[in-house]
Amino acid sequence: MKATLGTAVLGLSALLGTTAFAQDNTLTINSFGGAYEEAHRACVITPFEAATGAKVNVVTAYSADAFAQLRAQKAAPQFDVIHFSGGQEIVAAAEGLLAPIDKASLSNAADLYDFAKADLANGQGPAYSIAAIGLVFNTEAVPAAPTKWTDLLNPEYGEHLVLTDISNGYGMLSFLMLNQVEGGDLSNIQPGLDAVGKLLDAGAVVVSTSPEIQQEFAQNDAWIAPYASDYAFTLRKAGLPSGFVQGEEGTPASYITANLVAGRPNNELALKFIDLEISAEAQKCFAEALRYSPTNAKTELSPEVAADVAYGEAGVAGLIRFDPATIEAHRTAWVEEWNKAIAR
Predict the structure, then answer these.
(1) What domains lie within the chain, and their CATH numbers?
(2) Model pTM above 0.70
(3) 99-102 contact pairs (CB < 8 A, 24+)
């Protein structure tokens, strides 16, 4: 990672040139804590501070909490750059809490895949990483490596299948994909609920958190779980034989976005920070550290890392983004129906 960080610092230094910032040389951002925040500091924050002399104040806040703070601070926002992973930027932009971004103000915007920069002019910041949802599996235990979402219905998996509760964001996306391959859509989740009922009857278990998935793989002979690509890497680091595959029918995606907060005095500096986040160097660092999928087409990954993410034109072609606004509008009702389905 040191080489990557050095490259990021050099790249940012070239990007900034000799630009002087007349405004306050301080940014306030949020990050998501834990291993993510460690990578965020290593891949972006520390190189940015080193290259600019700026100070980055980090508030540890996940997407929902960060959005609540942004709303509460509407009259006097405290964040300069705010990061979301649950689609909150769609609502925040509609409410005028985020500032539109001119693509010309980001030197790396031209290198982003189109989906990652589609709504900059509307105030939705660029996606700088993707959590790709697919099939995490025990490479030594499965009779054959899965290739598609309908493989989850394979009777051979039975009691070796782990599902994640839809109160978990990755669990929600996994369920919606299962619902889709079973013939449902965001207006009808019954096919997915019916499929879950069959899987539970066959012995599948439901967990709520990532550590519980690891426990199932480590102690309870789990073979397969629909979940995010980064977690296969987490399992492997824990000494468990695990792989990740994108299902042939498509790959649900959680977009991690960097957004410019409206009403702040130092947007120029904030845009430089966002520009580093979308750079190929920073995204390579994130992929190596956490196995998040890059959105910059120029990001170059080793075969080992590339195997764990949605990589390149072919890898991102199958990405599916279920509308976050629709999910949020129906979340309470869907959770209620889900709870009824798993109450057995």
Answers:
(1) 2-130+253-317 (3.40.190.10), 132-252+322-342 (3.40.190.10)
(2) yes
(3) 99/123, 99/260, 99/261, 99/262, 99/263, 99/264, 99/267, 101/125, 101/126, 101/260, 101/271, 101/274
